[in-house]
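Mods, move this if it's the wrong board.
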Amino acid sequence: MAPERRLPVVQVDAFTGQAFAGNPAAVCVLPGDFPATDAWMQALAREMNLSVTAYLRAQDETGEVWSLRWFTPVIEVDLCGHATLGSAHVLWESGRLDAGTAARFETRSGRLTCRQAAAGWIEMDFPAKRATAAEPPPELLPALGIASARFVGKNAFDYFVELDEDGQVRRLRPDHGRLRSLPMRGVIVTAGARPGADYDFVSRFFAPAVGIDEDPATGSSHCALGPYWSEKLGRRELVGWQASARGGRVHTRIEGERVVLGGNAVTVLRGELLAAALP
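Not the wrong board. Structure tokens:
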């Protein structure tokens, strides 16, 4: 009797060094001939019900370059940091890539490269997504529950809001229904670090329009946060703290029009999809 078809799935907590913190992502490494349709990938992402499920497939027999796609429970997205970090972690941990070999991904946002850093975390080479000043839509600040902001801008993906101090960011209780109506992927809210903190800036990220009321630790938002705070603070290398309930630490380094994002990852679960769940 032929063995039952199965597909491994790995769950990784990203931008953290401990389980049950940071941002969880599901990672599926697809065999070259696996018949994964867009509808099936979206259905599995909905079933996993994490902020993002990532799908990897080797581009050729060498395994040097991998296609990478990201799905939230409701939509495919153009850029995702934590699931890219989790994907690189899975390739190294599983032995598909040697520890000293870079993980190279072809994505909707072009070529992304991950390397293991000397400090022990994973570094990811991402495009900078600088926010420029913009007039906020009338519903933006009321949806966040605030009357004013120090700065409001936007980039191709998100609105960007700077508040006066760390505590304001932490105390936000936004109206996700109102945020869902905004014509952007999400809203980045940030402020400088409180005195004595071991990070340089704090942030939160809300994206109910793509099925994520609040993302726990967001790499792509730091493609805007890194350049913004680097310019304000006059330093290329910074540390951001994402003040969600789970929390996440993201290192940023500006390299021209690229942002190198750094963070740790922890595998928390390995499982298998059985034949009934496969296309």
